[in-house]
UPF0473 protein C7459_12731
Amino acid sequence: MSEVETNQVITLTDDSGQEHEFEVLEILELEAKTYTILQPLEGAEEEAIILRLEKDADGNDALVGIEDDEEWEKVAEAYDTLLFEEQGGNDADL
């Protein structure tokens, strides 16, 4: 069971030690991997970010950046499709 849940607010620390708060907008399962879509709470106009959810050596959730452009694009496309469907869109609207 994942410790990260939709609508949860989490705090991440960047490389320079700065803490940033994010809301978990969505958790997606894609090709046997789990991804999180995070929206920064500060500067809400900033784009959401995508991180892969993995387990660390102790079995705790760890959010990892996606290095591979193709992997990132697949997740972004899946999220866009989900948003489109949630807003009542269908193939005829494309």
Remarks:
- Strands lie at 9-13, 19-30, 33-40, 49-55, 61-65.
